[in-house]
Amino acid sequence: MQQEQKAAPLPLAGLRVLDLSRVLAGPMCAMALADLGADVVKVEHPSRGDDTRDWGVRIGTRNTSYFNSANRNKRSVTLDLQSEEGAALARQLAAQSDVVIQNFKVGGAEKLGLGYDQLAALNPRLVYCSISGYARFTPEAERPGYDLVVQGEAGVMATNGEAGQGPLKFGVAAVDMFTGMYAAQAILAALYARQSTGRGRHVQMALYDCGLMITSYYGMEALLKQGDPPKFGNAHPSIVPYGVFEAADGPLVITVGNNGQFQRFCRDVIGRPEWAEDERFATNTARSAHRDTLLAEIRAALRTFSRADLLQRLTAAQIPCGEVLGMLDALQSERTAQAGLLHRFDDSEAGPQAVLAPPYAMDGQRMPVRLPPPHMGQHTHEVFRERLALDDAAIAGLRARGVI
């Protein structure tokens, strides 16, 4: 009888992370490490918890859709860091951690005795990640950072929307999310370096820096042209036809990426072989120059087909395409189910729930959701007994004094 293949150890199994951050960028960073196997302990204020416990759709008594999106695979403890006793307990947890993540205002962690220099003196191997709004070596270091503000300041809003439309933000907090992912990458690099040096590093991330990175090739174009690139909405700035189009019964995405695909698009998909012979449309450069004329013709032709018929024709012609789904339809699609991208669990307060599964897969297996998003302080007793060797009486005393 063939034995079942044992799951490989999680890449970061055994790594201890102390998450002192709140809202989104820091928690997203910590969740990325948790998804890869790290033991992440999230510290929350005893009465209010993470700010996002009050954002979005309520789940049970203290969880929300927003909180759950950034806190799977973590354990939650409550601790009043403003109290001397609470800060001292946090230092004890940091002394035995591999990574600390915090996004206090600049100088805030130091006031609590939780700054990098203070904790590195206790634990020289500590990789310490500070996330702020603006780089700590600039005059704006003490400014608080907010995703929406940075989207405006970094020029990100100037890339979104249709021509003639005013500034438009991303639908999600993209700067916060990118900052969290960049921070996780830097932490992993510092952990790798620690293997040879034996010492940790102070990783310093700023929302503005990461927001500017999002401008990517648009940013490079702005520098080269010495002006803002035009807005193209759902179309591509340099490839035609490429974007969202309307069939007779709904939208779809069509991406004609090269001249061969355009030939097949004209002849095999929409039955307009004369376009394939037209010098104005022979190359992508020519099509871009005559964008408005060509796209008007294409849009009119596509509206004579059903979406299902177009998708079948495009697929047969080997032209990348796809439906445009609503968010709920996408989450509940067969594609999502086959990829195992939703994790369902029973919440002790709210009943059946779901969270997104980690995007990481290795050796044919998706990284698991080991722990659903925690209730506030759910693991305080467990972590304090395990990490700090406190007995029941000591923990009860902390609770009576309002420290936890």
Automatic annotation (TrEMBL):
This is CoA transferase. The lineage of its organism: Bacteria, Pseudomonadati, Pseudomonadota, Betaproteobacteria, Burkholderiales. Keywords: Transferase. Signal peptide: none annotated. It holds the Pfam family CoA_transf_3. GO terms for molecular function: CoA-transferase activity. The keyword Transferase applies.
